[in-house]
Amino acid sequence: MKYKLFMSDFDGTLKCPTADAVSKKNLQAIARYRAAGGTFVVCTGRMLSSILPVLRGLGISEGLVSAYQGATIADIATGKLLKDGAFEFDDALKTVRLFESLNQHVHVYTVDALYCNRDDEWLKGYEKVCGVKGTIRENLTCFIEETKLRVVKVLAIIDPADGETLRQKLTGLLGEKHYVTFSSPFMLEVTPACNTKGTAVKFLSDYYGVDFSEIAAIGDQLNDLPMLEVAGGKYTVADGDDRLKGFARVMPRCDEDAVAAAIEEILADK
């Protein structure tokens, strides 16, 4: 099999935002791929505490999962961390202070907790989708300073109309140590530049002993770009961000089982 490792984003790629669960067709394709000797890994921006119970509920109870845009990689069965990345303290503080100065709805993540500065409908929707609960701290900058919080990721809920302008502004202000990207049109995320989905590919390549050319990946948003840039097989969904379509093979829409289509193509090209 040409691609021994297949990495998939979760929301908007493996699972459709409008669906209650991952489709049966996608799950069957994953099972066939694994039965053929392939290794399947979900690589998501979600919290580890959000994605682990979901995967176990789908019957994916062994192997690894990558969370927080690649900052965290864990064993699904035990939850043991194999990779545990985070911001340097001053960099986290700088990021959160900047978001708050721009009057944004901000999420701050540790490896196992979520802190938010606003208790609103956006937060309620996020909590429902991800199955997590945020703790409100109106001044997150002060909270981080006082607690010396170890921050893994920072996210802001934004107006999509302002998204690209804001992304470029933050990229310039935060500098090369930070990676600023979208996980959806209304979610602007910041991680250390050393913790992206691209670095997750590199970690898994070393862990499983497979070359980049033997790894395939599929995603739908800009945060998936580093993963697709590194992987040998590059796939995206038809309803994803257009910036991924210039160099990735376009599969059907997410709600048309894009992951299954990519896997079936890989299995057919043994």
Question: What distinguishing features does this structure have?
Answer:
alpha/beta; 14 strands; 270 residues; single chain; 6-stranded mixed sheet; 8-stranded mixed sheet
What this model shows, in words?
By secondary structure, the chain is α/β, with parallel strands linked by helices. It has helices spanning 24-35, 48-57, 89-101, 121-130, 140-147, 163-174, 197-208, 225-230, 258-268; strands at 5-8, 39-43, 64-67, 72-75, 81-84, 105-109, 114-116, 135-136, 153-157, 178-184, 187-192, 215-219, 233-237, 249-251. The protein has an eight-stranded mixed β-sheet, with helices on both faces. A six-stranded mixed β-sheet has the order 8-7-6-9-11-10, with helices on one face. The mean pLDDT is 96. It is globular, with a radius of gyration of 18 Å.
Task: Give a brief outline of the structure.
This protein is of the alpha/beta class. The chain has helices at 24-35, 48-57, 89-101, 121-130, 140-147, 163-174, 197-208, 225-230, 258-268; strands at 5-8, 39-43, 64-67, 72-75, 81-84, 105-109, 114-116, 135-136, 153-157, 178-184, 187-192, 215-219, 233-237, 249-251.
Separate helix tally: 9
Strand composition percent: 15-25%
Order of strands in the sheet with most strands: 5-4-3-2-1-12-13-14
Q: How many beta strands in the DSSP annotation? A: 14
Structural class: alpha/beta
Largest sheet: 8 strands, mixed
Mean pLDDT comes to: 96
Helix content, binned percent:
25-40%
Distance between the termini: 5 Å
- H/E element string? EHEHEEEHEEHEHEHEEHEHEEH
Radius of gyration: 18 Å
Outline type: globular
| Unreliable stretches | none
